[in-house]
Design brief:
Structural class: alpha/beta
Shape: globular
Oligomer: single chain
Helix content: 40-55%
Distance between the termini: 69 Å
Number of strands: 16
Bound molecules: nicotinamide-adenine-dinucleotide, uridine-5'-diphosphate-glucuronic acid
Largest sheet: 6 strands, parallel
Length: about 500
Amino acid sequence: SDGFDLHICCMGAGYVGGPTMAVIAANCPKGVMGSVTCGPPVFVSIPIRDESITTWGGGGGERAIRVCVVDLSQKQIDAWNSPDLPIYEPGLVEVVEKCRGTNLFFSTDIDAEIELADVVFISVNTPTKTAGIGAGRAANVKNCELCARKIAEVSMGDKIVVEKSTVPVRTAEAVRRVLDCNEKGLRFQVLSNPEFLAEGTAIPDLMEPDRVLIGGVQSPEGLRAAETLASVYANWVPRERILTTNLWSSELAKLVANAFLAQRVSSINSISALCEATGANVSEITRAVGMDDRIGKRFLNSSIGFGGSCFQKDILNLVYLCETYGLRECAEYWNQVIIMNDYQKKRFSEKMVSTMFNTVTGKKIAILGFAFKKDTGDVRETPSMFVVRDLVHEQAKIHVYDPQVKREDMWIEMDYTCKMNAANHPGLEEAVTTSPDAYSACDGAHALAVLTEWDEFKDLDYERIYKSMAKPAFVFDGRNILDHDALRKVGFEVHAIGKPD
Ligand code: NAD
Ligand code: UGA
């Protein structure tokens, strides 16, 4: 024995697998390295608790837990094992460094780690299908099935398999059937445990979740498996926040939560267009409406549209599910959230062009922020990309500054989502420059557009920026984070979402 009482393996070391497993490791009792005179170091099971971390929540079992995150990508795992983690997330480095090498490990030895594990999480990507039945809407669960096949193939003992990825309802059934095909008579319990963290706030979201949802089969074995997983979370999450449901409710609740959140953004964005047309101010509307406790204040910031790898994917997944069950009106209802989001992105770039005398050809435009939200370097489905695409089509010269986004990632996303690359769009590399800071991006520009709500954009020296820009100097605030009155005093012509011009 290695001194650990429970072994967890997580397949998929991405935005969810990495932070989630790091937080589990940080909050669970750890084995303590024992001293031996020869041979490799061994762990003896003396549970210790890190006081600075366990102050986050209540107590649970005292079983020492070892967590290993595995991935097919060697590059990804090497980065998790280095000081330069593959994703940027405030507070993540500190949590990883506290546990890595003690009870948190990252490896590409997938077979060995599955074999060792009592509990295997599947936390792989489930993107929208690009071809075949349901293309453009249905989620591709190929990676989940491959994980199930791998687990069935290499396991030598019974295991609990936890679906962490966001999946269409009844995927757990497919996972169970694949697992049951093992030829060793092994018995697997499948649980659904969707993740609700948001990027940029992943660590606090995981440390203090609103709820942890665990769906399982309502049989004695299923309930026992759910309790095993619940007892892991109970190390730091209060019991009343750990919900257990049947499998299908758990799978569907994840899609519904994202659909409701995205719907709020589309709702307020639709109102922002009406505000601009009527002279109402969307911030005043939000305050007035959000003070109603039944509606609530959060998630009502109008913007250039929502982005990120999940909202659109998960709503399309929901739409497709509704269609599959013949619920056409339900499908159309949710699809409207996407239609409104596309409209908002397009509306913003069109307004930039029409405001700048109907032409941006050859004009330098500074884009401040490319990530899909602040405090992340993630650019998947970022709304900034659609604005940049439209402006490139108008032959503007784009200068992008984002504190976390790598140029390489920007191009990969541009190619993946907009199908725009150097081969099919000659001159693209020259049309889009990445700047080292906001000041150089704005120097000589006709306009600056704030597309991500990074805090540092609020505190720039706008007098200096104004002096360096062509006149009239336009500001397009796509996140409503700047002090518009102050900017107007400096001399800028300011246009903001849902505000009178
Ligand atoms: P990701 O793309 O960042 O990471 C997925 C990882 O899985 C990749 O590193 C990939 O190499 C690996 N992988 C794929 N197939 C594999 C296999 N067969 N074996 C081992 N590794 C494999 O994805 P993500 O953002 O972490 O999302 C994962 C899931 O969680 C998705 O279903 C997503 O909808 C859901 N989710 C994401 C977020 C988020 O904020 N990103 C939040 C909640 C839920
Ligand atoms: C979202 C959900 O918030 C998480 O609960 C969920 O786990 C996750 O999706 C997922 O399943 O992937 P995330 O996409 O990381 O998290 O970030 P959000 O904070 O939800 O923002 C999504 C997008 O909506 C961003 O582009 C953001 O700028 C935009 N947004 C958000 C607005 O435009 N206005 C708002 O008021 C809030």
